[in-house]
Design a protein that fits this description.
- This protein has 484 residues and is α/β, with parallel strands linked by helices.
- The protein has one domain: TIM Barrel (Alpha-Beta Barrel).
- The chain contains 15 helices and 15 strands.
- Helix 2 packs parallel to helix 4.
- The structure holds 6-O-phosphono-beta-D-galactopyranose.
- The site of 6-O-phosphono-beta-D-galactopyranose (BGP) has 13 residues, from loops.
Length: 484
């Protein structure tokens, strides 16, 4: 009973959200570098290039680029077995289509991974976490252009060759399926480097660039298997369980289609083919999405070794009488996002200050859903609570609400292992240290066990200090989850 002895306890971040050093060490601009700071309920803007007078929070972030030794030492102190981060593509290939990689960028990650190993921490690495080279977005419109598949494959191969033996766990595209929830400018840029224009058929483009990303993922999986057979390479799915609002069979059918549209990506990653229901959907809705026979073969060779997923919240969906195709994505998709959405409030759940429903049992549901559908090892690579933290006069932060959130989710996770027999490799919570929020660009939306002295306005000396949750998580790891 209990979690495996080598369970990968740890924390997860992404390069662009913490590194800073956006123009240092030969790094090129990434799409994150042209996204302004938003706020709670205020969307980030995408500017045309980097403009004078705008606030781009990812440029400095928390300057992990210069603080990584100190930060990883703190992760080591908590007893981390794993640290999930991403390799900023633009540190390796500054423009994405360069001939040769940038040695200074490669050396940076060499040293970072060595620092992890010094503390017995396994790096778990995402190749594309919302940070495509800006040049690829501008010049090729990101994954709308098939040449980006080759650029990604080349970048991946460079990483596998260089970090062979140092990195055992890889992931291809972070939350590749987020764009399905709302094919809007923000998601399409983050996931596929696609810049939408007025009058574009966003839905059709979303599906086409997704297919191209899935092909790029498949090629990277194959390359990883060839170059480093001892490594494991997974996908990364944003898992938000979708419940039927009632036992009305119409609601249940709506839920079935909501699942299809959100999770077909995982079918491709784990089964190596585009599911029939998706071809039918494209046909029925006159969406011109091309997958050639040759590409179908590429997908077959790209089956992942494990499924990594993030889990923050669940949704509920109700049938729409005026919608015989169960085509509910015409407006915003998130609860509270407005528009003609079929997502409804789940009256059984509370929410965070950012309106994200809190549902620990949903994590157990999610683990079972993946496990029975794909029969693959799983890794929870993100789970956490964004909150407004208050630093007291004496420097302490009492974040008991965060401890409660994580405790309840970890309990549900352990039940999935002990009672449901789920094969689980690890749990890397989001995010062990305060970083820039991906959706809103805020610093004050904090997730960390480690407080970083910097606020939304960019003020603060970037000093690090331990919150109450730091000591709690250390004990959780020490007891392998026996004492929560
Ligand atoms: C996931 C992303 C992360 C991360 C997290 C929390 O969607 O993979 O990059 O940021 O959500 O979201 P946010 O930072 O917007 O609070």
């Amino acid at each position: 009973m209990g979690l495996r002895k080598d369970f990968l306890w740890g924390g997860a971040v992404a390069a662009h959200q913490l590194e800073g050093g956006w123009d240092q060490g030969g790094k090129g601009w990434s799409i994150a570098d042209v996204m302004t700071a938003g706020g709670n309920g205020i969307p980030r803007r995408i500017t045309d290039g980097i403009l004078e007078g705008e606030n781009y929070p990812n440029h400095e972030a928390i300057d992990f680029y210069h603080h990584y030794k100190e930060d990883i030492a703190l992760f080591g102190e908590m007893g981390f077995k794993a640290f999930r981060t991403s390799i900023a593509w633009t540190r390796i290939y500054p423009n994405g289509d360069d001939e040769e990689p940038n040695e200074e960028g490669l050396a940076f990650y060499d040293d970072m991974f060595d620092t992890c190993h010094k503390y017995g921490i396994e790096p778990v690495i995402t190749l594309q976490h919302f940070e495509m080279p800006y040049n690829l977005a501008k010049k090729y419109n990101g994954f709308m252009d098939k040449r980006c598949i080759d650029f990604f494959e080349k970048f991946s191969r460079t990483c596998f060759e260089r970090y062979k033996g140092k990195v055992k766990y890889w992931m291809t595209f972070n939350e590749i399926n987020n764009q399905s929830a709302a094919p809007n400018a923000h998601h399409m840029l983050q996931e596929g480097g696609v810049l939408l224009k007025e009058g574009d058929n966003a839905e059709e483009m979303m599906y086409q660039s997704s297919i191209n990303e899935l092909l790029a993922s498949a090629k990277a999986v194959k390359a990883c298997h060839e170059i480093d057979p001892d490594a494991m390479i997974g996908c990364m799915i944003a898992m938000c369980p979708i419940y039927a609002h009632s036992c009305n069979p119409k609601d249940v059918m709506e839920k079935t289609w909501a699942d299809y549209k959100r999770y077909w990506y995982c079918d491709v990653h784990a089964k190596g083919k585009v599911p029939n229901y998706m071809f039918k959907y494209w046909e029925r809705n006159n969406l011109n999405v091309v997958v050639t026979d040759e590409e179908k073969e590429i997908l077959k060779d790209g089956i992942v070794d494990y499924i990594g997923f993030s889990y923050y919240m669940s949704f509920a969906v109700a049938a729409r009488e005026d919608n015989p195709d169960f085509n509910f994505y015409e407006g915003g998709a998130l609860v509270g996002a407005g528009g003609k959405s079929d997502f409804v409030k789940n009256e059984y759940l509370g929410a965070t200050d950012w309106g994200w429903p809190i549902d620990p049992l949903g994590l157990r549901y999610a683990l079972n859903w993946f496990s029975t559908r794909y029969d693959q090892p799983l890794m929870i690579v993100e789970n956490g609570m964004g909150a407004y933290d208050k630093k007291e006069e004496d420097g302490s932060v009492d974040d008991s609400y965060r401890i409660d959130y994580l405790r309840n989710h970890i309990r549900a996770m352990i039940d999935a292992v002990n009672k449901d027999g789920v094969d689980l490799l690890g749990y890397t919570m989001w995010a062990p240290i305060d970083i820039v929020s991906a959706s809103s660009g805020e610093m004050d939306k904090r997730y960390g066990f480690i407080y970083v002295n910097k606020n939304n306005a960019g003020e603060g000396d970037l000093s690090r200090s331990k919150k109450k949750s730091f000591y709690w998580y250390k004990h959780v790891i020490e007891t392998n989850g026996e004492e929560l």
